[in-house]
Each structure stands twice: as C-alpha cells, then as structure tokens.
Amino acid sequence: MSGAEDIDRRRWFALCSREDLPATHIFETDLLGQELAVWRGPGGIVNVWVNRCPHRGIRLTVGAIMGAELRCAYHGYRYTNGSGACSAVPAQPGRAAPRSLCVKSYPVLEAGGLIWTRLADPEPAAGPPLDGTGDFTPLYGLAVKSRPAEVAIHLAGYRFRPSAALAAPETADESCSTVQIDAYGFQSVARKGRLTSEVYLFLQPVDAQTTNIHGVLCEVPDGQRLEAALRHHAQLFGRLRDACERGVRDRAP
Amino acid sequence: MITLYDYDLSGNCYKVRLLLALLGVSYQRHPIDFYPGREHKSPWFLALNPLGQLPVLEDDGLVLRDAQAILVYLASMYDSSGRWYPAGEPALLGVISSWLMFADAITGTASAARLHDGFFYDFDIERCRSGAHRLFRILDEHLWFSERSAQGWLAPGANPSIADIAVYPYVQLSEEGGIARRDYPAIRRWLDRVKLLPGFVTMPGILSLPVHA
C-alpha cells in the first residue's frame, strides 16, 4: 500500500447524510474498496461496520435490524448496537454467544448533517471540515463512475445560484466561486447582491471505479425554496456526473 | 375463482401474487413450466396468450395478459379502499401509468439481465445492465425527493399504488442479473418500505423483513 493510500485510510470521509439512516434500515456503501454496513440503533448510535458476518461471511446489509441488534440473514446471528459483539446464536439457544465473535466497526462522527468515518489509526489531527453546529441541509448525493481526482476537476468549477434567487431568472450580477479545501472537499459560495448561499461538497472514494459526491447547503430554506434549492443542486450534480463520465469514456482506448 | 397462470421465479407473476396478497383476494394458481419446459410457448398456452408471455389472469370469463394490465384490473375490481389505483383522480392515474411504463422498461433491462444470467437467454448483457443502471439512477433521485415531499412512494400522496408493486420485483431481484444496488440508497430504503407493507409476501430470492422491528 502506498503512503497516500495509507493517509487516506486514516482521514475522515463522509459516507451519507443523517437522513440516509432511518430506523431499522441498513445503509450499504464502500469506502476505499472496504464494504460497509451503516445503521442507526437505539440511542441514536450510528454503527459503521464491515459488511460481512464474521460467522459465514454473508453481507450484513441483507440482514435486518431487531431493536438494538442487527440479525444476519443467513443463520440469524445477532450483533449488538454500539459494539458489534455477537449477542445470540439461534442454533444454540441455551448457550452464551461466543465472546470472540464480533463485527469489526469503525469510528463515527456526525457533522454538518453528514455521517463520517475513517478506516485506520492513528486519528488525524484534522477532523471533518464541518462542525456539528449550524443549520445544514444535506443535498441529493450521487455516485459517479470515475476516480476522485477526475470528479475533483469538475467540482472545482461548480457554479450554482443562491437559494433565495432561484424563483427568478438568472441575472448578470450573480456570481459563484468554489475553492478546494483539501483533496476531497470543496466550499462554494453563490452571491446575488446581498443574497448568498454556501455549500460544502465532499468526495467519497468508493471503489476503483466509483466516487460519491455528498453536498450540504449551509442553510435551511423554508417550504418551496427548499424544494427549489434541492432540485437545483440535484440537476447540477447530474450534469456534473454526465460530464465527468463522458470524459472517462472519451479517454478510454 | 380467479386463476393465475403462474411461474414461481417470474417477477412479473410475483407482482400479481403480491397485489392479490396485499388486497387479501384468494385465487388459484396454474403453474406453467417456463424453464426449462417453455410451456408458455406451447400451442395451448399461445391460444390463451398469443404473445406467449406470463402471467395470464382469468376471472369470471375475462382473460387478461400483461402484469401491469392485470394490476390495473385487480386494483379497480377488488380494492374497496380505492387507494391502489384511485379511479377518481386523473392526474394521479396519469402518474401511475407512467410508472407502469417504467416497470416495462425495467423488465426489458434488469429482468433481461436476470434471464441472461439465470436462464441462459442470449441477450447483450452489458446493454441490459447499463440500461438498468440508467433507469435506477432516475428511480433513485425520484424516490429521494419523494421521501422529502411525501411518503416515499412512486406516485405522490400518503399511500403506495400499483406503480410501486409493478416496479418493485425486478428492482429487488436485480442482483440476480449482476446489477448491484449499492449506489442507490433511496431505492434501497424504498425496497424496505415495500417489504413492510401489511400482507407483503415473498418469492424465491426475496427475503422478508421483521415487521415488528
């Protein structure tokens, strides 16, 4: 493993938004090729687990949430919210669950409306670029069939309009500037007169072919403005994805 | 008594069984040896449905083909709540019909990929899979917005409709055609919602979810 990949395994990455984790749902994603099962248990605890049952290796994402436990779909082994420890083996009802059986779990942070994790120690000095305070609206995120560096090139040119200006046609006095925070993060500000909107955009290296884009709007627009803003960014993300994937295809031999 | 000409492993037959179960309507099954027997191409079956396709439904002298058409009929005939196919709401019926067409497009891609992988059909598999992914992207974004503006069903409003039942099976079975759903979180949540409907039934390849969870 190269040094850069090693650093990537230690840093915090956004996996999904808080809305992606409704009760009893098991969210599925990969990070740097590591398959993950993500779910929110009782007490608001978010679990980021290796997506394999340690018993026979089936994906935990085909299992089910039963109260404070995730039940594997294959033999019904149960794993505990918060720790990943096996709590029950249905085929051995009278016996305690084997202590050594535990799902590997990763550290979790919630910040800026997003769920973050990292795959390796030691913990880096830098946390996620967003803190837990403030109003954030997670945007519709999507998967791009391209590598992070490719997507980053397109995100650097991200241009959007302030939420409060969307009801009217675009005018010449509008502007937008995007700056790259680090290899996987961008901050973008749109202006029209005194109206401003700010978004953060984060890249998740999923696997060798896939990069997820996660966006958050740093405000909570009301009613129709919210819908318009969400649609606006979803449309821009879709175009960005198409442009990015066209670039990948055009360069293919 | 309703008779369903049926094949266990068919998603299009399953969607009819699913709606019948959700509506609590009893029926009898006439199993057809689709694979390897190709009974759906036999002379007697072609007399019933010249297209040689499953499912076919018989009810009181009416013979209906095409899963989507059968869903429309069953909901109109047997759903006293009027929720699954709301006859009095033209705009909603239009939206539902557009998703019934979408279900057919899913059959032509995701289901075709599954026929290729599991039943040795001679299809262009890459074309099937890329076509399915194109549709899944549209479906995922639509469902994400539906989760925010309504209850997360395909058509607007508080209740699922036959649109959800028509689209569901071949999306849920897509992995049997090599089409992963990892990149479609809103689709994955919607699949859970369908599974939690009261009266939900499974088919081979589809697991249930514990309702009490």
Give a quick precis of the structure.
Chain A has helices at 3-10, 148-155, 223-251; strands at 13-17, 27-31, 34-40, 46-50, 64-66, 69-71, 78-80, 86-88, 105-106, 108-111, 114-117, 137-138, 142-144, 174-182, 185-192, 195-207, 210-217. With 253 residues, chain A is an alpha+beta fold. Chain A has two domains: 3-117, Rieske Iron-sulfur Protein; 137-251, START domain (Alpha-D-Glucose-1,6-Bisphosphate, Chain A, domain 4).
What order do the helices and strands come in, and which of them pair?
The complex is a heterodimer of chains A (253) and B (213).
Chain A: H1 3-10, E1 13-17, E2 27-31, E3 34-40, E4 46-50, E5 64-66, E6 69-71, E7 78-80, E8 86-88, E9 105-106, E10 108-111, E11 114-117, E12 137-138, E13 142-144, H2 148-155, E14 174-182, E15 185-192, E16 195-207, E17 210-217, H3 223-251
Antiparallel strand pairs in A: 1-11, 2-3, 3-4, 4-9, 5-6, 6-7, 7-8, 10-11, 12-17, 13-17, 14-15, 15-16, 16-17
Chain B: E1 2-6, H1 11-23, E2 27-31, H2 43-48, E3 56-59, E4 62-65, H3 67-78, H4 90-119, H5 125-149, H6 162-172, H7 185-195
Query: Which CATH architecture of the largest domain in chain B is right?
Result: Up-down Bundle
Structural class of chain A: alpha+beta
Q: Give the low-confidence spans of chain A.
A: none
Question: What is the CATH domain class of the largest domain in chain B?
Answer: Mainly Alpha
Distance between the termini of chain B: 36 Å
- Helix content estimate of chain A: 10-25%
